[in-house]
Write a structure and sequence with these properties.
Layout: H1 6-39, H2 47-58, H3 63-74, E1 90-91, E2 97-98
Antiparallel strand pairs: 1-2
Helix pairs in contact: 1-2, 1-3
């Protein structure tokens, strides 16, 4: 033990977990929004969206955040950003192609 209170030790551990969880939820939310934008907001007819939602549920993402991500892609909630999938292509040293 570090000699400090038990709460300060818990707080430091919880802070690290919360930062990791927050970044994971952001990535999963963007994946859900992009999948919904490409194939529609119905998971029954959009396989990519269904997989993204299942992955989010496996990571214990709250249902409200999943619903918000689907609504964001449908244009119901204007977040001020437009998501799009982009593929960059270039050449590195010795003519190696990079995608």
């Amino acid at each position: 033990m570090s000699g400090h209170s038990k709460w300060s030790t818990i707080k430091r551990k919880k802070e690290v977990k919360d930062i990791k969880r927050g970044s994971l939820f952001t990535k999963l939310g963007n994946a859900i929004a992009l999948a919904a934008k490409e194939g529609g907001g119905d998971p029954d007819s959009n396989f990519k969206l269904r997989l993204a939602i299942e992955k989010a549920q496996a990571s214990n993402m709250p249902k409200e955040k999943i619903k918000t991500a689907v609504e964001r892609s449908a244009g119901l909630k204007n977040q001020g950003s437009d998501l799009a999938e982009i593929v960059y292509e270039g050449y590195g040293p010795y003519g190696i192609a990079v995608l």
